[in-house]
Amino acid sequence: MKKLIWTIAIFILFFIVFSLVTYQVDETQVALRSRFGKIVETNPDPGLYYKVPFIDKILIRDSRLQLYDIPAENILTTDKKRLEVDTYVLWRISEPKQFVETLRTLRSAVTRIDDVVYSLIRDKFANIYIVDIISERRRATLNNITNTAEETLSDYGIEIIDVDVKRTDLPKANAQAVFDRMKSERKKEANLIRAEGERAAQDIRARAQKDADIIKAEANKTAEELRGEGDAEALAIYAKSFSQDPEFYRFWRILTAYEKSFKSGSSIVMGKDMQFLKEFYGGSQELERRIQEKE
Question: DSSP class of residue 266?
Fold first, then answer.
């Protein structure tokens, strides 16, 4: 029994001594060993490390990416519009020794980040218009803010990953005025586009009408030329036919007139002394005789 007690006491003493001379670093942490207020070792990798008990002091800091949500603040833009901007910062400890020597705690780091980033946002946004802030065009300004903040805070062992805007709101007093102005500008642009479209449409219609008139004129000219040629050819045929047998040509013309005059439903007052009806009453006997003589 006495031996068991001694064994347990030795184990307890061993664990006490072991805990006094060692310390453990998690994979999400970085450890710094300081002696008499001076940092003598930095352990960024996870594992078990040794220390001098009662002399060395171990400082543990989080090495993961961290988010700091900056409280929303009012920003005055270059067009004298007040805008409420809610931003956030992604950051991490890049140089643990430098971080501890300059800021020591996360609270001090957050305060420093807030001062630097807010002042940059206020100054940069003051040089651009409100439409550039509430649109995607603000990305270029935010990249500039991120780079400038990175350069400033690198002296404190802090790396700034990104600065971005979560939300942008107009104060109620300015919102309606800004919306009205934006609506007026969009309406003006729409009217300008409509006017340009109408002018282009008129030009197209005028060119189309001009082309149509030219085509019609050329078609009429061609038709008149063809009609004249046809009439001339017909007259030549008529003249040739008339010259060969004038009496037969006259007879044929009278029969053609009869055909057009004596249509169904027509009424004609007939008389033997009418010259037009001479052939109808047998005035063609002389023609028939001449035809028989020729045969």
Answer: -
Alpha-carbon Rg for the chain, nearest whole angstrom, is 55
| Burial environment of residue 259 by CB neighbours within 10 A (0 to 12, 13 to 18, 19 or more) | exposed
pTM of the entire predicted model? 0.53
Give residue limits of the domains in the chain: 18-62, 66-169, 176-206, 245-294
Q: Are 6 and 13 in contact (CB under 8 A)?
A: no
127-168 pLDDT tens trace: 888 777 777 788 888 899 999 999 999 999 999 999 988 887
Alpha helices in the chain (DSSP H): 2-21, 96-102, 106-125, 130-133, 138-153, 172-244, 246-261, 285-294
**89 neighbors 70 (Cβ within 8 angstroms):** yes
Write out the two tokens for 75: 């920003």
Following CA atoms 264, 266, 270, 273 in sequence, which dihedral angle do they give, to the nearest 10 degrees?
A: -100
Spans of the chain below 50 pLDDT: 287, 291, 294
233-248 pLDDT per residue, tens: 887 777 776 677 676 7
Question: What's the rounded Cα separation, in Å, for the pair 183 and 82?
Answer: 19
If you search the block for the tokens 């028939």, which residue do you land on? 288
Task: Give the pair of three-digit tokens for residue 235.
Answer: 């007259």
- CATH superfamily of the 66-169 domain: Band 7 domain (3.30.479.30)
Q: Is the distance from CB of 129 to CB of 79 less than 8 angstroms?
A: yes
| Distance (Å) of CA 129 to CA 81, 124, 163, 190, 295 | 8, 11, 19, 22, 110
Give the pLDDT of residue 287.
47
